[in-house]
Automatic annotation (TrEMBL):
This protein's record includes keyword Transmembrane: no
UniProt-listed Gene3D superfamilies: 1.10.287.130, Histidine kinase N-terminal domain (1.10.490.70), Histidine kinase-like ATPase, C-terminal domain (3.30.565.10)
Pfam families per UniProt: HATPase_c, HisK_N, HisKA
SUPFAM superfamilies hit by this protein: ATPase domain of HSP90 chaperone/DNA topoisomerase II/histidine kinase, Homodimeric domain of signal transducing histidine kinase
Protein biosynthesis as UniProt keyword: no
Enzyme Commission number(s) from the entry: 2.7.13.3
Keyword annotations from UniProtKB, A to Z: ATP-binding, Kinase, Nucleotide-binding, Phosphoprotein, Transferase, Two-component regulatory system
Catalyzed reactions per annotation: ATP + protein L-histidine = ADP + protein N-phospho-L-histidine
Sequence intervals crossing the membrane: none
Protein name as it appears in the record: histidine kinase
Species assigned in the record: Fictibacillus nanhaiensis
InterPro entries: HATPase_C_sf, HATPase_dom, His_kinase_dom, HisK_dim/P_dom, HisK_dim/P_sf, Histidine_kinase_N, Sig_transdc_His_kin-like_C
Superkingdom of origin organism: Bacteria
C-alpha cells in the first residue's frame, strides 16, 4: 500500500513539474522542429503538442484509452497530408517532442529508478501515436494517388477519343485527294513507263497512304469488317520486301529472310501486312544510326502444332530497358518526329488476331516477336462485334 501511495505521489509531483515547465518545454521544442512557412496547419502545431502532453499526463494517471491516441493521430495525419509535407519531417518532429519530454522528466529531481516506468509509458505512447498517424497518412496518400491515377487514365482515354476524331476527320479531308493523286500517277506510269522519278513518287505516295492507315486503326471509324483469307506467309513477305526495296536500298540495309514456305495463315492479310511493314520500317529507321553492316533478319517457324512464331530483328542500337515496358503504349516514341501510334496499332492488330507481340533488345540485337495461332487466327464476326477499338 505504501508503494502505491508513493507511486501516486511521484506521478502527481511529476505532472506538477511538467505543468510548471510547460512553456519552456514548448519553446525549446518549437525552436528545433522543422516546419514550412507554407504549412496551412502550422498554427495547429502547438495545439497538437499541448494535446500530446495532455495524453502523456493521462497515461501517467492510467486514464488513457487507445481510442484517444488514435483520434489525435488520425486528426494530425489529415493535417499533415493537407499541408503536403514530407512524412519524414513529421516523424522527426514527433520524436523531437518525445526527447524533450524525457529530458524534462529526467530533470525533475526524481531518481532514474523511479522514472523508468514513466519513461517506458512515454515511449509507448509516442510509438503508438506515430504508428497510428503514419498508418493513416499512408492510407490517405494511397487514396490520393489512386484518385490521381484514375484521373490520368481518364485523361488518357479522352486523348485517345480525340485522336480517333482527329484521325477520322483527317482521313475524310485528306485521303480522297490522295487516292485521286495515286490514281493519276498510276495512269502516268502506264502512259509513260520511262518517265523519270515516277516510281519514286508512286512509292512515296503509297508510304503516305500506309501512314494514314495507321491512324485509321486507332479510330473507331477506321474499322474494316472484311473477312479473313488464307495466304502464304512467304508470299506476304515477298510482297512486303518488294514494296520496301527502294527504302532498303536507300538505307543500305541487307535483309536476311528465313521464311518457312509451308506456313499458311488465315487472317486479315492487309492488317498483318501493316504490322510487318511497320516493324521493318522501324528497323530501317534504327539502322540508319549505324555506319555499316546494317542487317534485318526475318525468321519464321511453327512452334508445336498450334502457333507460328515470326521474329524481325535488326543489329541497330539497343532500345533502353526503361522503354521496353512502354514501347507498345499509345503516344510513346523514341523518334524525334514519331507519333507513337505505329507499335500501338501493331499490338492492337495482333491481339485482335488472338496473338501476342513482344520486344527484346541488347547491344547486339533488337528483336520483335509475333506469336499467332495457326487455327482461328482471325477473330470471328461475333468476336469483332464485341471488341472495343481504341
Amino acid at each position: 500500500m505504501l508503494k502505491e501511495v508513493r507511486a501516486v505521489d511521484i506521478t502527481e509531483s511529476l505532472i506538477t513539474y511538467m505543468d510548471d515547465n510547460l512553456p519552456t518545454y514548448l519553446h525549446d521544442w518549437h525552436q528545433r522542429i522543422v516546419i514550412s512557412n507554407h504549412d496551412v496547419h502550422k498554427e495547429k502545431v502547438i495545439d497538437n503538442a499541448l494535446h500530446m502532453v495532455a495524453l502523456v499526463k493521462q497515461s501517467l494517471r492510467h486514464k488513457l484509452s487507445p481510442e484517444e491516441i488514435m483520434r489525435l493521430a488520425h486528426e494530425v495525419a489529415v493535417q499533415r497530408l493537407e499541408a503536403k509535407i514530407n512524412i519524414g519531417e513529421f516523424v522527426y518532429n514527433v520524436n523531437l517532442g518525445r526527447s524533450e519530454i524525457v529530458r524534462f522528466v529526467t530533470g525533475s529531481g526524481i531518481s532514474i529508478e523511479q522514472l523508468q516506468p514513466v519513461i517506458e509509458k512515454i515511449n509507448f505512447l509516442f510509438d503508438e501515436f506515430l504508428y497510428q498517424a503514419v498508418k493513416k497518412y499512408t492510407q490517405l496518400k494511397d487514396m490520393e494517388i489512386e484518385e490521381k491515377t484514375v484521373f490520368i487514365d481518364q485523361s488518357h482515354k479522352e486523348r485517345l477519343t480525340i485522336l480517333g476524331q482527329m484521325s477520322s476527320s483527317f482521313v475524310h479531308e485528306f485521303r480522297n485527294p490522295l487516292t485521286a493523286v495515286m490514281g493519276f500517277v498510276k495512269l502516268m506510269q502506264q502512259e509513260n513507263p520511262n518517265m523519270k522519278y515516277i516510281d519514286i513518287i508512286s512509292h512515296e505516295l503509297t508510304q503516305l497512304n500506309f501512314r494514314i492507315s495507321q491512324f485509321l486503326h486507332a479510330s473507331r471509324k477506321g474499322i474494316q469488317e472484311r473477312e479473313a483469307e488464307d495466304f502464304s506467309l512467304e508470299d506476304l513477305f515477298t510482297d512486303i520486301l518488294d514494296f520496301m526495296y527502294p527504302s532498303l536500298v536507300d538505307a543500305d540495309v541487307t535483309v536476311i529472310p528465313r521464311i518457312d514456305p509451308t506456313i499458311t495463315l488465315r487472317a486479315h492479310k492487309d492488317e498483318l501486312k501493316q504490322v510487318l511493314l511497320n516493324l521493318i520500317m522501324n528497323s530501317i529507321d534504327a539502322l540508319r544510326q549505324m555506319r555499316q553492316n546494317r542487317r534485318i533478319m526475318i525468321f519464321t517457324k511453327i512452334e508445336g502444332q498450334d502457333n507460328v512464331h515470326i521474329t524481325i530483328s535488326n543489329n541497330g542500337p539497343a532500345i533502353p530497358p526503361e522503354a521496353i515496358s512502354t514501347i507498345f503504349e499509345p503516344f510513346f516514341t523514341t523518334k524525334e518526329l514519331g507519333t507513337g501510334i505505329g507499335l500501338f496499332v501493331c499490338k492492337k492488330i495482333i491481339e485482335k488476331h488472338n496473338g501476342s507481340i513482344s520486344c527484346s533488345s541488347d547491344d547486339n540485337i533488337t528483336t520483335f516477336t509475333i506469336v499467332l495461332p495457326l487455327q482461328g487466327t482471325a477473330p470471328t464476326h461475333e468476336e469483332k462485334k464485341s471488341q472495343i477499338e481504341i
